[in-house]
Design a protein that fits this description.
9 helices, DNA-binding, mainly alpha, homodimer, 187 residues, elongated, 2 domains, Tetracycline Repressor, domain 2, Arc Repressor Mutant, subunit A
Amino acid sequence: MPTPERTSLEAIVAAARDLLETEGLPGLTMQAVAERVGVRAPSLYKRVQGRDQLVQLVAEATLVEVAERLEASTDLIDLVDRFRAFGHERPSAFQLVMTPGPGVPTARPEFGAATSGPILRHAGALAGEPEALEAARTVTAWAAGFVSMELTGGFGLGGDVDAAWRFGAERIVAAVGSGAQGRDLVS
Amino acid sequence: MPTPERTSLEAIVAAARDLLETEGLPGLTMQAVAERVGVRAPSLYKRVQGRDQLVQLVAEATLVEVAERLEASTDLIDLVDRFRAFGHERPSAFQLVMTPGPGVPTARPEFGAATSGPILRHAGALAGEPEALEAARTVTAWAAGFVSMELTGGFGLGGDVDAAWRFGAERIVAAVGSGAQGRDLVS
DNA sequence: ACCTGAACACCGTTCAAGT
DNA sequence: ACCTGAACACCGTTCAAGT
């Protein structure tokens, strides 16, 4: 006799994302997720292989959302500003996705690739197609590193963090485009 | 009647650092550490407040070591190369220190400050003192982000990661120094 | 077909009891 | 003064039993 489903994978992932942000990764337990979706912990294993896979699904859902936000960006400066804004809104999810600690499950590569579309587009326009990938990686690494460090207090005390962000954004965007400009001048 | 000490804080931290690298952060358990130093888990609480503090001590010891390595650097390119080399040698410790995941204990600020000495020195020489801090943060953010992403597979598949590193290092060092150069030309 | 209680192995942590 | 076994609360996970 079939039993009606009392929850869903979507509800489980949503509860996990909530818990991650409110309680941190250690608070994202199977029991807490189960309670939120109105079920006992063992029932989660009908929809999810285990906690590690659930964390991975949270990371992937986060990447999809990041990709959506970046799609709307108009240029590279706007893109990194949106990227940073997401980090401030959802610090735990941002860290999970961009800089998972040692031993933390990560998203499958396809999901990382989804976010690189808009970055590659803007980076290519600026640096030229041959250097698009390297330019995109330079910008991404800087932005991810910067936001991750400010979220974990890596910048220590003192100084104007917003000013350092603008400084970095302007200089890096200029630097990444400098090769193409040089070549244009010569050709 | 006093009992002879059967272990020490140094031995505990050393065992924890070993475990972090060989087993990952989840494998860094109080029981595993206790076994390595030849003691039962409860005895660890004579020297350490708890697992979180032990992880913090590991992070701080790692930062001291990173600072030592960076001290030897001759210029900014050399410095970031040493920084990256450390990440490749000790990936888990590197991630713990530079990009701890959400909920992972972090080092006290003094220890982060220790590593910024050599960075500030080289960045100041390049960008000028007024912009030294912003230049240092730009370089640090890029390097930390880059190495963290390559360690966690964040760059997806394909492409020449070493080439992207050299591209970024050269462009960023140039970009960070561009303001001072410009001012020199005008003055 | 889905959900549950019970159980297992394994955590971190506390504490009274040993020496 | 340090170490230990026992105990507790809490994990993730498995599985036989319920409906």
